[in-house]
Amino acid sequence: MQTIKTRITQLLGIERPIVQGGMMHVGRAELASAVSEAGGLGIITALTQPSPEALTNEIKRCQGTYPFFESGTIMITSLREGVFFLKSKKQEM
Predict the structure, then answer these.
(1) 2-31 pLDDT, tens per residue?
(2) Count: domains in the chain
(3) Is 1 part of any domain?
(4) Residue 92 in 3-state DSSP?
């Protein structure tokens, strides 16, 4: 397949200007990986995950050579817990 160059593909480091929407209950590693492997930007929906640990495991399942994104909506029990979780994920990646 041919690579399509646009501002968005260059900005996101993807081959085609396709961005998967964050979709509750289906925005999991399998879908995000498939979209990313096809040249777009796959998205894992954080709100689908029951805990920060489950989200971490879902992110690990999706990591590979293709770009993907974890949507920023996370249910947290406290602001401090949420800030710590997001900072720790940024340092890991």
Answers:
(1) 888 998 888 888 899 998 887 888 888 899
(2) 1
(3) no
(4) helix
